[in-house]
Amino acid sequence: ALERPDGQVLDAIAALEERGLVQQEWFPSGIRYRVNPLLEPSIEQLGLPRLDSEELVEVRRRHAMGLAGDDPDTALVHLLQIADYRMAQQVLISNYLPVLENPARFAELLRWVPHEDLKKYRILASAHFLLELRDPRIPPSVLKKLHASLRETASREGENGDPEAAVLALTALLVAARMRGNTSDTLKIAREL
What we know:
The protein is mainly alpha-helical. It has twelve helices and two strands; from the N terminus they run αββααααααααααα. The termini are far apart.
């Protein structure tokens, strides 16, 4: 359908929208269409050709990157679910504070990131630590392990020389040091910033 001339595609989308099969969503970059969420299970049962796992991951990655500017929360969810931590970190760098403001949604997703992978991506590690720090149910041993990972990754040279990533990671480490009452670490990190 998308290979047809633009007018035919728009007519087809309008007909689908009239029937309630697709919904229009407005974003700063323009209009997007999505299948009515109530119909998603039915569409899965149609027996359409299935993508293999690699193709499905690539479709989800492209979809997430397309959404990143307009709906970074959903983009981040998709990227974390397909374990594309490098791209998830890029989306997170631009949307760090909104993610921290939504702990219920992202803390659980970040818990699924393997510890060894978390240590490779300091922005994911810092967000995970700060989200868990806010949850009184998290045992001190888990916070200690996350803090150690954050200390290890925060002081490393920035991935791709990204100064914003360095500032975010060091700020998370500064918060951790201050909350632990470690004044000397707090001053040392503040000087690095």
